[in-house]
């Protein structure tokens, strides 16, 4: 009977080891978990995924940092601009998707994505309706840029002198962000109704949507989850000079497909940036105890067209290429001479940084990054950062430009930040624990096999040891 039991234990040990190793090598349970994730991460009514996508629970904050110019008269004489950063002025961003319709047999979803901003005093340095900033006079700059070297430069100059407009102005943070009625624009509006009499960098962007989106639901392929296929009725942009640069590629930056790998590239379309971007894996991080992959824009994405030929399409007009880090977005900003860059010209051409005194670019404060759960594709933490700059130059037709050098003046930079809330983090931890338990089953089976094997070895070897000891006693000499 004892031999039968020992034989059974030995056999079971071998079975458990073979089964455990087979499951581990074939990744059977891991594939089962991945298959379940693929099946669940689809935009369809009545699911937790759909509700979380429609109304994301993590709080989003917009932080605005302004650059205050301390030597405007000297700048007009060709001296180096001195700036002092003022901020943050923080706003809570309330963002949900509305007018959602599932179409094309559940394969596509249409929606609008309005955003509302509410000021958060405890996360800000001051009162935006009181604090004054000396900044670039963008309406005057727009008028001068459009009228120079044309017959309209004389009436434009008369209006500038009449309204005592200069290249720099003093306005409150609230006015610069959300808009103010400008005397020059009001006068121009009488002759050109398409010119808005009000100006602000986020004018008409509070409580409004940037247009209709059409995205893929992920029903056909999990890789297409929430990928944008149309924006405002168009499948591509028309601001740039190449088809690559005009592509609408990726998601809106708030959701991503599951089962990410470190060799994956994340694509994002941003109407604020007027282009699509991509990010690559940087390092492993942890957010609220949850493992995540950090993705950042590679330096290549900011390089000039000589280093990265794919960026040649961003040279507008064609052939008019800028240095690394700078993007001319005037075509999609109503003709305003606005140029985007990373904050403080981080990872940009050094000449832009050297032209300004008071900038201090660094990775921690100025890099854009996304921390994503690789299994689910859920965004755990992010900082999306960009800087708005104005190009100024000496224009012979306008005395307001003095002897200023051709430079790019930083106006403000924006940090859109999000971090998963504790309630959502708790739910995700539970989900990840369940999947971890399932994928750990092969190791448990192997451990049981090893224990049974150890028991079998002990019980087989002990009688042999006893017999050996008995034999030694019998042959011991008297």
Summarize the structure.
This protein has 478 residues and is α+β, with helices and mostly antiparallel strands.
Mean pLDDT: 86
Number of helices: 12
What profile does the largest beta sheet have?
11 strands, antiparallel
Into which percentage range does the β-strand content fall? Answer: 25-35%
Strand tally = 19
Please state the structural category.
alpha+beta
Distance between the termini: 38 Å
Low-confidence stretches: none
Shape: elongated
Radius of gyration: 31 Å
Percent helix, as a range, is 25-40%
Description:
The protein is α+β, with helices and mostly antiparallel strands. It has helices at 2-26, 28-40, 48-54, 72-76, 138-147, 153-162, 173-178, 183-191, 350-354, 363-366, 422-439, 441-474, and strands at residues 60-69, 83-95, 98-103, 108-112, 115-119, 132-136, 168-172, 180-181, 198-199, 212-216, 228-231, 265-270, 275-287, 290-296, 327-328, 338-341, 369-372, 379-392, 407-419. A hairpin with a 4-residue loop joins strand 12 and strand 13. The mean pLDDT is 86. Its main location: membrane. Belongs to the CD36 family.
